[in-house]
Amino acid sequence: MAKADPQRSCLGCREVKPKGELLRFVLDPAGNVVPDLAKKLPGRGAYTCYRHSCLETALKKRQFSRSFKGEAKTPRVDEMLELVTGLQEERVVATMALANKAGRVVSGSDKVMDALRKGNVALLILAEDISDESAAKFLAIAGKTGVESYRFLFKERLGSPLGKDIRSVVAVEPGPFADSLRRELTRYGNFFEGGAE
What is the pLDDT of the chain when averaged over all its residues? Predict the structure, then answer.
């Protein structure tokens, strides 16, 4: 029988959740609070939900110092939010690059549309700045075939993990890479849920 994931409470909203569903922070040797998205850094962890608002609350209420039982050095709220956002983006981009290297990614409007029609797509990633008209076409087919879709980055950056200049839409074939990307993109999207007040 699989071992249950230990529970931890969020420093922001105080909700108790499995540790694997939360964003982990540790102290570096100088006493700075640093995000540990891979959950591999040594030391005691402190946790928040994958939500912008929870991290902001934890920082404003100085919950990291309480959790680490001493003075924990934290950057300004906007700096920490920007840092976590950047690290989350890097995780998605790195996973996309690996999926592309393994031949599990299709990009370019015509190729993606063809893959969607053939039913060989697990998830669809649309650039933030894709035109409404183009997005509607892809989302209509994705909706009919039950393919999950996400908005991520701008066209110029969406192509970079694939070794391309500009991409407005990317499709990922079923398999472990799609599962990893789904998890990372969901976390990335959840982080902005509730946002800043």
Answer: 92
